[in-house]
Amino acid sequence: MSLLAPQEPETTAQHAAPQAMEPRRTHGDMGPLEVRARRHHLIDVGDLDDDVVQRMWQRAKELQQREQRGIGTQLFGTLRGHVVATLFFEASTRTRLSFELAAQRLGALTLPLDVSRSSLEKSESLVDTLQTLAAMGATMAVVRHRDNAVFSNLGPQVGLSLLNAGNGTEAHPTQALLDAYTLWQQLGSLQDRVIVIHGDILHSRVARSNARLLARFGARVLLSGPADLLPSDAELAQLAGAQVCAFSDAIPQADAIMCLRVQRERHERAGLADAAVLRAAEATSFLHAHGLTQERFERAKPSCLILHPGPVNRDVEIEGTLVDHPRSQILQQVRNGLYIRMATLEWIAGVLP
Ligand code: CP
């Protein structure tokens, strides 16, 4: 069953149910009963209209400004009554903690599931686990999973809203939202801006979600990296006009360069453990062969920004000193992640201004 199928109306919710609306369509396409029977999910950026993305960015900016004015420590309360469960089947620092903090800052309760000590270890299915959390009152579940197909295997019977915190190599929508927000903040507009995404594109859900989102706002996305870490031509054709480009050609054109970590854990699972590029990464010669070094960055425009979704492996994909460069946005991305995830939770709850 697909998440996009209509769902049964909520009849037993103990808490304010997420306001219903099917992704990829507008309220205007549906009658009120149908709207109530549907629930927001965020699986990838395609679930958000351009208008919603822009409202999220505006809301993130407003939340950020409130904090700068010294009123950010107050709970906003827009998610009071909600319970946000987090289920991380892969490691995370930024995404998990910022979702939990965002939920708490908005007045929701959080329900972090320690997957390794849960009944999933006793072969309980993910559907049954989600239904169990919903029965306890959870209204949203933030899920990170190594399987690209994890969300296609879930249906509306899970009984709560699903937020993708990164699935396999497929999508990481809130990362793309916060990256694009950071670029929008710094560059003023994404129209005709050249954004270079560099590194292990093949295994990167961040690259895929970013390519899809940035192109919608007029940016030109160039993908560069070692030849065996680039997507196939067939996949590239589905990436919203993104083009492959040699890093040396891309650098001078870039308004921003986003470096990506070499995802060794996915290489090993894909049987690429013997790939030359992985051996090079292990030998830290990856930096000199492929990474963003000080020397290479000197060929960029004086205004060119440095981004990285994290976690960073200093002196592998990027020279350590560039992480701390005045034009590095890496910690700003982390800060923005909190506000974007607050806005995302508000959208899920149907209370995004
Ligand atoms: N960018 C990102 O997803 O970081 P974490 O793995 O720390 O969540």
Tell me the span between the first and last alpha carbons: 31 Å
Lateral strand order in the biggest sheet: 7-6-5-8-9
Which molecules are bound besides the chains? Answer: phosphoric acid mono(formamide)ester
Question: Would you tell me the overall average pLDDT?
Answer: 86
- Fourth-level CATH superfamily of the largest domain: Aspartate/ornithine carbamoyltransferase
**What structural class should be given to the helix and strand makeup?**
alpha/beta
Helix tally? 14
Order of helices and strands: HHEHEHEEHEHEHEHEHHHHEHH
What would you note in describing this structure?
This protein is of the alpha/beta class and 353 residues long. It folds into two domains: 27-172 and 336-349, Rossmann fold; 174-334, Aspartate/ornithine carbamoyltransferase (Rossmann fold, 3-Layer(aba) Sandwich), CATH 3.40.50. It is built from 14 helices and nine strands. A five-stranded parallel beta sheet has the order 7-6-5-8-9, with helices on one face. The chain has a four-stranded parallel beta sheet with strand order 2-1-3-4, with helices on both faces. Helix 2 packs across helix 14 and helix 5 (173-187) crosses helix 6 (205-216). The longest helix is centred in the C-terminal third of the chain and has 20 residues, at 330-349. The protein is globular and about 55 Å long. Residues 4-37 have low confidence and may be disordered. The chain binds phosphoric acid mono(formamide)ester (CP).
Summarize the helices and strands and which ones pair or pack.
Layout: H1 32-36, H2 50-68, E1 83-88, H3 94-105, E2 109-113, H4 126-135, E3 140-145, E4 161-167, H5 173-187, E5 194-198, H6 205-216, E6 220-224, H7 233-236, E7 243-244, H8 247-250, E8 256-259, H9 264-269, H10 276-282, H11 286-290, H12 294-297, E9 305-307, H13 320-323, H14 330-349
Parallel strand pairs: 1-2, 1-3, 3-4, 5-6, 5-8, 6-7, 8-9
Helix pairs in contact: 2-14, 3-14, 5-6, 5-14
The chain binds phosphoric acid mono(formamide)ester (CP).
